Amino acid sequence: MGDDRNQLVPCSTGDSPYSNNSLSTVQRPLQSTIFCYNFHTDTLEPISASSTDYQTHASRIQRVGLHQYLFEHTNTLLLLEARQSHTLNFSVLWLRTVLQRSAVSLIWRQSIVNWLIGIQRKNHMKEEVAQHCVRLLDARDTLRGHYDRDYQLRAMGYFILVAKFHNRIQVKLEEYSRYSANAFDPRDIGHIVRHLFAELNFDFQLALPQEFVELFLELNSTETCKLNEPKIRALSNLFIHVACIQSWSSCFNASLLATSVLVLSLKFMRQIRPEIPHLNYILWTCTYPVELVLGLAGYIAMIVADMPGEPTDRANHYFYATKLYNDECHHENHFNLNHVKTFCREFVQGSLVNRQIALGMRSLVSQQRRIIEQSYFTPHPHVTLTQTTPLLNPNPNNALRVNNDTPRKPFNDQPEQKQPMRLTVRAVLAAKRFGKQVMERRQNRLRQDLIGVA
């Protein structure tokens, strides 16, 4: 069968139709394809060897020379993403769950994620720690019937493991106990960490959105225009953390979520720095339509636009995400949070983005699920990958338009007209506010019970 590193075999860990042993031999050749996103026309097309400027585009994204390791590392992450089925398993579970019945537990999850981002900020940990923890938590525990206290303890256990994986910072268990307001004894925390480490069987490395964002920014940087800068990364982190707080974030591949965040970040940056090129390149092993990318970006922008000013209450689910952003950008007027919210509000009102949001999140998750099934599971068994690093796809037959349903607009077109938010979008925002009210009432009841006991 060849080298095991080169075989596309899903390593499932959840209750999914793809977690049975009968699929262990279902494999296919895996190739990465360069896609070009045009910010002028909002189109997304693969770059094929038949195009006249193929060599220019390919040499730019491959970073031929001393920096070619960036291209190879991106392909390594794409291969890791393709071999794991955490995203597919969770999307199946998320689509099967009646979210109205799980509203309280999902609101509790939002509070837990906000709390973890706060611990990351306090200890100056790397940006991807909370993201990594959330992906592990969703893959194994979210929507699986854990009690609130057990769920929080397991979340802390994942966070400690991931923090040790990404950082050299050693935080004592007594300190983590204080972070939980002494709800957990240090011995309980140590026990759950050892239990989860054995449960994961030393395998907790995942492809993360932040890693893809940094690689895409670096691959698209030139000598005259550097994109991988602290402020752009801080803006991308804000969008990623806002997405991670939502339960649907783990339903999407990290490379797709990173692309949507990249579109949002660079569209905002082009208002400040017009010299940023309108053509940017990304690498995928799947073929995602531009509507899916913009729909996911629109949902993130909608949440940011609906945030009530700069949160000042720690109970607000976006308190620490905005704190992290302001730590980096508070002294820059152009990067003011209110400017970001204004941009997001205008982005959501675009006709194509508005239409995708109106279809609902379940439609986007279902679309991503179908793409993963078609890309990573084929009816032809015993087909293996022959090279470790995924290759570019030079086949002219694959040079099909990704956005056939969206006609290409000429460069001299007038700017796209803004449309008012549709009724479905307003209903989504109203549902978010209702969920927040439910959580506040629940917290008030808990406070009253504690006062009564005292």
From TrEMBL:
* Coiled coil (residue ranges): none
Comp. bias regions, Polar residues = 9-20
Q: Which Pfam families match?
A: Cyclin_N (PF00134)
* Superkingdom, taxonomy of origin: Eukaryota
SUPFAM superfamilies noted in UniProt: Cyclin-like
* Gene3D superfamilies according to UniProt: Cyclin-like (1.10.472.10)
List every stretch annotated Disordered.
1-20, 388-419
Occurrences of domain Cyclin N-terminal (ranges): 100-204
Low complexity bias spans: 388-400
Give the protein name, as stated in the record: Cyclin N-terminal domain-containing protein
